Amino acid sequence: MPKLAYLGPQGTFCEAALRILVPGGERLPCANVTAALDAARSGEADGAVVPLENSVEGAITVTLDELAWGEPLLITAELLLPVEFSLLVRPGTEMAHIKRVYTHPAAITQCRNFLARELPDAVVVAAPSTAAAAQEVSMEDSPYDAAIGPAIAGEHYGLHELASSMGDRDDTVTRFVRVSRPGVLPEPTGADRTSLVAFLRDDHPGALLEMLSEFSVRGVNLTRIESRPTGDGIGHYFFHFDAEGHVAEARVGEALSGLHRLSADVRFLGSYPRADRVSPQLRSGTTDPDFSEAADWIARIRSGRV
Ligand SMILES: O=C(O)C(=O)C[C@]1(C(=O)O)C=C[C@@H](O)C=C1
């Protein structure tokens, strides 16, 4: 039974994602995303499940930066989890009593309208996770009056659900990924995604365009691009890319090798099945047979068989 680290404690959205991604797996709750990834790196766990992006809040930057800079890990699976927030209080607390709210920063952003409308004067404080907030609020002497988190966290920590579906949108999803120490890649399925980060060799007009061209000329569609600061001062960035397809496919492999040639560094973050199971629409001239036919043609020319 694999042991998977996750952003704990019990009751987080991350735990819900892990239960779906690895049913029956052993679960190791961690205090934060970095600790979960470190548990996977050290071998304390066989892997980790962490949030990567949210359809309202955008990138979970701690995950992006850990995958880019930390000891290498590979994404082996992804999941899109609908997220619904509840206002969780100790039994007996009413809306009018709530002065201090505790929750994960991503939940604050996703519940902005509710907070402005219903609790405009409440101080909202960032917690390590939604379930950590619920656990804290369940203590009688907690300085917080309410937590925002999944209803299941409320049940787990004995809290009352004062409001449900608090999110500004009712169709919000968070994308979670399962990561493992580098090893065998998942097999291509025909509906895959490839993640990587690339670092510029030198900054010049069109440097990002050149990187993007490596994908576009080979018919590789991107599903996400994110710039992150390198930390070397204002104006210095590196780039995260999610692309349709698997590195085993010629067009994706060639795009990555093109990127490798023109970048200071490229870190491959994995090829894995897409959660939405969408297969790419390949343009004519970009299929594996097209690439191998073109390679054969060049080989014939080079051997004088024109
Ligand atoms: O705190 C949790 O429950 C988490 O699983 C983390 C997290 C996140 O990082 O975005 C996951 C989903 C929601 O967007 C809010 C918080």
TrEMBL record:
Its pathway, per UniProt, is: Amino-acid biosynthesis; L-phenylalanine biosynthesis; phenylpyruvate from prephenate: step 1/1
Q: Where is the Prephenate dehydratase domain?
A: 3-181
Q: Give the UniProt record's GO annotations in the biological process aspect.
A: L-phenylalanine biosynthetic process
Keyword annotations from UniProtKB, A to Z: Amino-acid biosynthesis, Aromatic amino acid biosynthesis, Lyase, Phenylalanine biosynthesis
Q: Which reaction does it catalyse?
A: prephenate + H(+) = 3-phenylpyruvate + CO2 + H2O
Q: InterPro entries, from UniProt?
A: ACT-like_dom_sf, ACT_dom, Chor_mutase/pphenate_deHydtase, Preph_deHydtase, Preph_deHydtase_CS
Q: What is its EC number?
A: 4.2.1.51
Asked if the record carries the keyword Amino-acid biosynthesis, the reply is yes
Task: Keyword check for Lyase, yes or no.
Answer: yes
**UniProt site positions, description: Essential for prephenate dehydratase activity:** T174
Q: Where is the ACT domain?
A: 196-273
Task: Please give the SUPFAM superfamilies that the UniProt record associates with this protein.
Answer: ACT-like, Periplasmic binding protein-like II
An example of a GO molecular function for this protein is: prephenate dehydratase activity
Gene Ontology cellular-component annotations: cytoplasm
Protein's name according to its UniProt entry: Prephenate dehydratase
Q: Which organism is it from?
A: Sphaerisporangium melleum
